[in-house]
C-alpha cells in the first residue's frame, strides 16, 4: 500500500434561482451589456433575494446535491471547513451552522477567511487532516453571498460579483491520486487595495460608517488586476518547477473566476494554452470563494481518473496560491 493522500471523491455546486443579467445591471448603474462582457466576460450572476436565507443556505444547497450524487451519509462526516468572507454571522462560524442544518451530528468545523483564495486554503488545510489519518471524511466548501456586501450604486464592483458556492468530499486514498502539492502565499500590504472599510474591530459598525456606505466591497481595480495575474502565474510556475512538470503534463487549469481577462492573462503569462483553461464566469460572475468548486462541479464529467489539474486563486488581503491535484475518479 502507498502513503495516504487526500482525494476528491465527489463535488457539487449550488447557486440561487434568481438571475441578474447585464441588461438588469443597466437599470441599476451606468453600464452596458457590451461593456461588461468585453471587460469581464460576465453575462449574468445569481443573487439570493430571500431575506431569510444566508451563506449557510448556499452551502447546504451544494451539500444536498453532493449527497444525492454520492450517497454520502452525513453522520459519517468528521469535519466541515467553509471558505467564506460572507458567513451568516461574525460568530458563530458558518461551518458549525451548516453541520446542524444537514444533521452532521458527528462533525466539527470552522471557517477560513482568505477571500477568493478561501477554497484552496481550505482544501489544503483539510488535506492535512486526511493525510495524518486523523479524519476520513471532510466536506470542503467555498461559498459566498456577495450580494450582501455589494453597493449596487458602485458600478466598479457590483457588476462583478454573484452568489453561489460548491463543496468537495475529501477522503483518504492510497493509489497516488489526490492533493499532490500546493504553493500558498499572502501579503497583508495588499489589504489597502481590496477590503471592506468598516465592520471589524479596527472600525466597528456605527451609524456614521453605515451612512458613509463603508460596509461594502472596496477595491482598486488596476492594482488588483495586475497583482492577480502576477500572483497566480508565479505560484503556478513555482508549483510546476517543484514537481518537475511542464504545461504539457497538465490537463486542465481551473483558475478563480474573477475576470476573463485575468484568466487569459495568467495563461498568457505562463504560456498555457487557452483551450485547457476552464471558464464559467459568464454564468455566475465572481462568487469569491465559490468559483473554483463551482467550476469543478460544472466540468466534472470532463475529468478522467489520473488527470492532472491545477487550481489557482487570488484574493483580497492579498492571498493567493496554486494546488496540484490528480483526479481520483
Describe the structure concisely.
This protein has 329 residues and is of the alpha/beta class. It has 11 helices and 13 strands. Strands 1-7-6-4-5 form a 5-stranded mixed beta sheet, with helices on both faces. A 4-stranded mixed beta sheet has the order 8-13-12-11, with helices on both faces.
Structure notes:
The chain has 329 residues and is of the alpha/beta class. The protein has 2 domains: 5-176, Peroxisomal Thiolase, Chain A, domain 1; 180-326, Thiolase/Chalcone synthase (Peroxisomal Thiolase, Chain A, domain 1), CATH 3.40.47. The protein contains 11 helices and 13 strands. A 5-stranded mixed sheet has the order 1-7-6-4-5, sandwiched between helices.
Low-confidence stretches: none
Series of secondary-structure elements, N-terminal to C-terminal: EEHHEHEHEHEHEEEHEHEHHHEE
How many separate domains? 2
Please identify which CATH superfamily of the largest domain we are dealing with: Thiolase/Chalcone synthase
Assigned CATH architecture of the largest domain: 3-Layer(aba) Sandwich
DSSP helix count? 11
Number of strands: 13
- CATH C-level category of the largest domain: Alpha Beta
Structural class call reads alpha/beta
Mean pLDDT metric: 97
Q: What fraction strand?
A: 15-25%
CATH topology of the largest domain: Peroxisomal Thiolase, Chain A, domain 1
Strand order of the largest sheet: 1-7-6-4-5
Provide the helix percentage.
25-40%
User: How would you describe the shape?
Assistant: globular
Report the C-alpha radius of gyration, rounded: 19 Å
Give the N-to-C terminal Cα separation. 18 Å
Major sheet, described briefly? Answer: 5 strands, mixed
Amino acid at each position: 500500500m502507498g502513503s495516504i493522500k487526500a482525494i476528491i471523491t465527489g463535488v457539487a455546486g449550488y447557486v440561487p434561482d434568481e438571475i441578474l443579467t447585464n441588461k438588469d445591471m443597466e437599470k441599476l448603474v451606468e453600464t452596458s451589456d457590451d461593456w461588461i462582457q468585453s471587460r469581464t466576460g460576465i453575462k449574468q450572476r445569481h443573487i439570493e433575494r430571500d431575506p431569510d436565507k444566508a451563506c449557510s443556505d448556499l452551502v447546504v444547497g451544494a451539500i444536498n446535491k453532493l449527497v444525492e450524487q454520492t450517497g454520502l451519509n452525513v453522520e459519517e462526516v468528521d469535519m466541515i471547513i467553509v471558505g467564506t468572507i460572507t458567513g451568516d454571522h461574525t460568530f458563530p462560524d458558518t461551518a458549525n451552522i451548516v453541520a446542524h442544518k444537514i444533521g452532521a451530528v458527528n462533525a466539527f468545523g470552522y471557517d477560513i477567511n482568505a477571500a477568493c483564495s478561501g477554497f484552496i486554503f481550505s482544501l489544503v488545510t483539510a488535506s492535512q487532516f486526511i493525510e495524518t489519518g486523523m479524519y476520513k471524511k471532510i466536506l470542503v466548501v467555498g461559498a459566498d453571498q456577495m450580494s450582501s456586501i455589494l453597493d449596487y450604486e458602485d458600478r466598479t464592483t457590483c457588476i462583478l460579483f454573484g452568489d453561489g458556492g460548491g463543496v468537495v468530499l475529501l477522503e483518504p486514498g492510497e493509489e497516488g491520486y489526490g492533493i499532490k502539492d500546493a504553493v500558498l502565499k499572502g501579503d497583508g500590504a495588499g489589504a489597502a487595495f481590496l477590503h471592506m472599510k468598516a465592520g471589524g474591530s479596527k472600525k466597528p459598525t456605527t451609524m456614521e460608517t453605515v451612512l458613509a456606505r463603508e460596509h461594502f466591497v472596496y477595491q482598486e481595480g488596476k492594482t488588483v488586476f495586475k497583482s492577480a495575474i502576477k500572483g497566480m502565474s508565479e505560484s503556478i510556475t513555482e508549483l510546476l518547477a517543484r514537481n518537475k512538470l511542464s504545461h504539457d503534463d497538465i490537463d486542465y487549469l481551473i483558475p478563480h473566476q474573477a475576470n476573463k481577462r485575468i484568466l487569459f492573462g495568467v495563461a498568457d503569462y505562463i504560456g498555457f494554452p487557452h483551450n485547457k483553461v476552464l471558464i464559467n464566469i459568464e454564468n455566475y460572475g465572481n462568487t469569491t470563494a465559490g468559483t473554483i468548486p463551482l467550476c469543478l462541479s460544472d466540468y466534472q464529467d470532463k475529468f478522467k481518473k489520473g488527470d492532472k489539474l491545477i487550481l489557482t486563486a487570488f484574493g483580497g488581503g492579498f492571498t493567493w496560491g496554486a494546488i496540484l491535484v490528480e483526479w481520483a475518479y
